[in-house]
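[job 4471] stage=fold_predict status=RUNNING
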Amino acid sequence: MPSRRDFLRLAALGALLPQAARAQPKGKPKPKPKPGAEPEGVFVNDVHSGLTATMVSQILVPGTVDEVRAALKLARSEERSICIAGSRHAMGQQAFATDAILLDTRKLTRVLGFDAGRGLIEFACNWSRLHGAKQLKVGVFDDNRGALAFYRSAGFNDGGITRPELSTENRTVLLLTMNLSRTAGTEG
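[job 4471] inference complete, writing structure tokens
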């Protein structure tokens, strides 16, 4: 059985390994700054705790989706990572990336789309998969055109099966199914 000291040494080594792996250079090496030269970039930090001072290459403040796309394109062309910040009130848990482009998202205040129905279907698919289901089924009245169109657009298939026990004398319940080996239509 290892001693406490050996255990602590191994734990410290284990904690350092991910840092060492990330420190390995990727692609072409960036030029080293000249001795005495001012570092290029901007220091950012968590507003309250000040525990995560990090030098990023620049801060971009997009206000539109097109400006976000332009920032991503710039990062790709400069072979830089992207890090994202809101108000920086994370009490030391804000993750910044050294030499990355920081996207300050405070101007992005508009919700572009929220589809509760698709969100619920995605949740149902994930929950069902976790519990070993291979297929998701839903019953819909045959005259409910909106629901039928929604479920079909989300990836459910109409197998032409009816559920007589759920049908009424004027309405027939159709059984729609989705194979859970794929999640067609559930992507936002």
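[job 4471] summary: The two ends are 52 Å apart (CA to CA).
[job 4471] exit 0
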